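Appendix B, example 12.
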Amino acid sequence: MASLRFTDVQARPTEFLDFTSLTLEEFQTLIPPFEAAFQAHMAVWRLDGKPRTARQFTVYKNCPLPTPEDRLFFILVYLKTHPLQVAHGVMFGLPQGKTNPWLHVLLPALQTALRQ
C-alpha cells in the first residue's frame, strides 16, 4: 500500500499549502515545539493511551510515521481535510485501528505546540 509522506510533497509548495494550509517555512517553524510536545507525551504515555511503565518511546523500524515531519504532516492533513479515519489511514498507509491512536496522540501535541 502506497503512503503519503512529507518528502512526497515538500518540493511542491502549492500542493503542500493545499494539504496543510501552511507554507514550508511555517511548517518548519512548528516542528520543534510540536516534536517536543509529542516526545513529552510519549515519555509518560504509550500510543494506546496506557501509562508508560517500562520502555521509553523509540521510533521502531517499521513505524508508519517515523519522522517529526511525517507526524506533523499527518495531523495537519487530517485537520485540513477531516476525512473518515479509514480514508486518512489509507492515504498514510495505516489501517483505521492504527490511525485512531496516532490522531489522539498527535492532536494534543499540535495544540501544545501552537500555544507556544
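Helices lie at 6-9, 13-20, 24-44, 68-81, 85-92, 96-115. The chain has a mean pLDDT of 91.
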